[in-house]
Amino acid sequence: MAFVFIKSKFVLTPPALTTSLMKKRTVPDQFLWAHYKSAICKAAGLKDSSDENYTSLGHSLFANLAAFSKALPPMAVPTIAEALAQVYLLADTLITPNEIYTPALNRFFSQYATYIDCLIPEKHGQGPTPGQEAEIRLLQSAIKEANDKYNHDFNEALASWHLQGQEFPNKYPYFQNFIDETFWGEKLIDENSIILGLNSQINNLLSEIFGKDFEAIMVNKQIVDTVRTSMQGFFIANTYTMQVSTDAGNAIKPTYTPSNLVTFSEWVDATIRNHDLADRQKNKKPISFFLQKKNKPTEYANKNIDKPTGSIDAFFYTGKRTAFRSKSNSQFQSGQLININTEHEDFSAQFQYEAITNVQLTPGLWYDSSLMYNFQNPNHLSKAISLTIAMYPDVNLTLDSKSFNEFILAYHSKAGFGVGPYWASATHKSSKSSPQMDVTWNENLNMVQMKSSSPIPLIIGMEMEIL
After folding, report:
1. What does the alpha-carbon distance between residue 68 and residue 91 come to, in Å, rounded to a whole number?
2. pLDDT of 226-243, one tens digit each?
């Protein structure tokens, strides 16, 4: 079962720095992120995060999945289509390797569909002749080019529909209306016909060469083609597609199946009730872990985090950063570093949550994992296979005087300050995708607490699977 209540207390206590390191620098951000990632991974009951199969989010994100909740405010309860929109967004967006969540521009279904279009069986017996091999390569190249053109124009049509919706509200309520009534419809139909025609040619050739060895690929190709065609409409045509609902309107997407959302909604409701009871009884949150003073960077060399694969966001920072980074976008906002003295004897950072659970994400029946034997993945892209979701974050810091005063100044400016995935400001509110954090200062002890009273669950990490 994917949903579990976790009531144990987890404390992460890193070893001390050597004297030479203490004099040179504070603990680098990648080690703080790695500590945080490892802690939430273990708190969620997943395996150790020393490999590349888990990532934490550099920005908190509301989990818009509790479609059957009775305890959430009515405006915070999503429809099934709205919940599936978030499932699709996170499950279909591929991820580049990094310490924190870094989405790629690639979509898994489009990558998979192009791969299946060009897939040939593993060789058994004689295989194709040199002439047939050349013909296969030519057709594969033409199919890839046709797919790239179709995907480009499909995205262009979608962007144009969004723009038309802003200029002429209600003229094209659905994407299908826009496709039917503009030149985009004929264009996409023609391009899809070219893809189908090329697929038919290569299918006939591969059937001639491989016979029964090609039958499984043929079956999956037909399913992929069905999904691709259905995505131009706005009605669910088969079990391989689902309807999602976003601010831009309804759309048809390839099916992704989450864990039971009824069970998840019950978990949310139970956590809200327990939280209200805990507030009355002044109980501490059951899930707690520390990023304590004097961390030792060399201790993590075996976890491959001493040389991160990409640039790392600051763990303590000022300035609100964007929700998700992208390596392809050099303009991402990662916040300005606050150089907290993490080696000071008073330093301590404690993260607490009321409860943590996992929601599994599974591709629909259009995906056949047994056919992935020739998939090329030079960039080591991964897809999300589960979401780690927590409720009621509570961060407690104890700082040296200089760092404490720097936090206060940042908090009362428009920049605000952030710790890991959480950000707060006295003058500016958090975005609609992340919680408003309430801040309490203790100037006598140089302590600051930032916590959220919002009952909406948060996605704080992802379990991944390399393609």
Report:
1. 21
2. 898 888 777 777 889 998
* DSSP secondary structure letter of residue 416: -
Whether residue 113 contacts residue 224, with contact meaning beta carbons closer than 8 Å, is answered with yes
Q: Please check whether residue 458 is in contact with residue 60, taking contact to mean a CB–CB distance below 8 angstroms.
A: yes
In the structure encoding, which two tokens stand for residue 395, read together?
Answer: 């961060």
Bridge partner list, 288: 352
Quick: pLDDT tens for 354-383.
889 999 999 999 999 988 888 888 888 999
Residue 446 CA to residue 442 CA, distance in Å, equals 6
Structure-token pair, residue 344: 């000071």
Angle at 311 between CA 332 and CA 308, to 5 degrees: 155
In eight-state DSSP terms, residue 100 is B
Residue 298: which residues within 8 A CB-CB, separation 6 or more?
Answer: 306
Question: What single string gives the DSSP state of each residue in 375-429?
Answer: ---TT--EEEEEEEEEES-EEEEE--HHHHHHHHHHHTSTT-EEETTEEE-SSSP
DSSP-derived 3-state class of residue 383: strand
- Residue 306, SS3 per DSSP: coil
Phi, psi (degrees; rounded to nearest 5) at 53: -95, 10
> Using CA atoms, how far apart are residues 38 and 126, in angstroms rounded to an integer?
50
- Residue 211 backbone class (left: φ over 0; alpha: ψ -120 to 50; beta: rest): left
Q: Which two tokens stand for residue 257?
A: 């199946």
pTM: 0.75
Q: In what order do the strands lie in the sheet with 447-451?
A: 287-292, 348-353, 394-398, 447-451, 438-442
**Segments of the chain scoring below 70 in pLDDT:** 1-27, 47-51, 123-127, 165-167, 169, 174, 278-287, 289-312, 320-337, 430-433
Among 436, 426, 427, 425, CA closest to 458: 436
DSSP summary character for residue 301: G
